[in-house]
User: Which sequence fits this backbone?
């Protein structure tokens, strides 16, 4: 089977991702286990990242062997212009999180970021985005706080949650 040059480059990128997954798996195996962790130890997230990177690498290898994915980028003659409004909203979301997280806590800061990022991706329903973002952020906070025992800062909602 002969691969065109762009598919070979795609295969090289896929093999690189597989290599990163193998490296991540190796590093996850050397994380020292502590008897202080009852439910989820410190190696859970590294193992999760390693498995996901390996799965991504396998998927990219399969896509590359089927002809690759970067040829669609080469075929684009007239790319769309840069959407500066969307980039500005993404940047505003990052700034909002940075500015609010210390003062108001994770839930409010991440919810504000969620609403701004949703607007950057074209959402025109800020109230819906606010409700979804708040639900996701509260769930994430509760999982960190209750399941992992890590306080990521509830801020002014700390007494409520």
Assistant:
């Amino acid at each position: 089977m002969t691969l065109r040059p762009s598919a070979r480059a795609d295969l090289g990128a896929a093999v690189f991702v597989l290599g990163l997954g193998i490296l991540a798996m190796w590093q996850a195996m050397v994380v020292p286990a502590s008897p202080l962790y009852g439910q989820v130890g410190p190696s859970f997230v590294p193992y999760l990242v390693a498995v996901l990177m390996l799965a991504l690498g396998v998927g990219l290898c399969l896509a590359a062997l089927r002809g690759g994915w970067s040829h669609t980028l080469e075929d684009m003659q007239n790319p769309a212009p840069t959407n500066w409004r969307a980039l500005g909203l993404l940047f505003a979301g990052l700034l909002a999180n940075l500015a609010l997280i210390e003062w108001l806590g994770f839930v409010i800061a991440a919810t504000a970021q969620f609403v701004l990022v949703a607007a950057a991706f074209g959402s025109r329903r800020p109230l819906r985005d606010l409700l979804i973002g708040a639900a996701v952020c509260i769930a994430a906070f509760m999982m960190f706080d209750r399941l992992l025992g890590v306080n990521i800062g509830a801020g002014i909602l700390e007494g409520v949650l």
Remarks:
- The radius of gyration is 21 Å.
